[in-house]
Amino acid sequence: MAKKKTPHAKTILNRRARYDYAIGDTYIVGIELTGAETKSLRLGHGQLIGSYVTVKDNQLYLLNATINGTRGITISESDQTRTRRLLAKRREIDKMIQAKQQGKTIIPLELLTQSHYIKLKIATAQGKREYDKRQTIKARDETRNMRKLIKH
Predict the structure, then answer these.
(1) Which residue has the higher pLDDT, 11 or 95?
(2) CA nearest 65: which of 43, 94, 45?
(3) CA angle 141, 146, 151 (to 5 degrees)
(4) Cα torsion for 127, 20, 22, 100, to the nearest 10°?
């Protein structure tokens, strides 16, 4: 029997996160979704920009993440940015609570849809200052110039 071909995996990235934050420990957690949200994410119709993770009653919740519907998949306006519960191991949750108490934030980095389950990669992070961001831009430009010189 032939293997089923999976459609190309659509990973949804939070590209702004690595620019605005110094990334610390990363974790891969599950996310509680409805069927329509799952279908939309598999098609790549979602955004993590501006979203964050909070801790409430010793559980993790994802706030401000947008999941848009498509033609055949309808998601109401209020459900597009609803609060979604994250599924993680107790030890991981305790580590994140401890990091949050130390002044760090928990941010989503990317949504992984290539496997049977939809997972979310989150990280504990420290916010960058303006001069740190300038150094990031400078380093990125230098590596870009080096690659150009190597090609020629």
Answers:
(1) 95
(2) 45
(3) 130
(4) 40
pLDDT top residue among 80 and 144: 144
DSSP string, 28-85: EEEE---HHHHHHHHTT-EE-TT-EEEEETTEEEEES-EE---SS----HHHHT--EE
Sign of CA dihedral 121, 126, 129, 133: negative
For residue 91, pLDDT over 90 is answered with yes
- pLDDT score of 30: 92
CA 103, chain centre distance (Å): 20
Which amino acid, one-letter code, is at 27?
Answer: Y
Residue 125: count of CB within 10 angstroms of its CB: 22
User: Is residue 15 classed as helix, strand or coil in its secondary structure?
Assistant: coil
Q: Say which residue, 91 or 78, is predicted with more confidence.
A: 91
What is the Cβ-side half-sphere exposure of residue 27, based on CA atoms within 13 angstroms? 23
Domains of the chain from N-terminus onward: 12-151 (2.40.280.10)
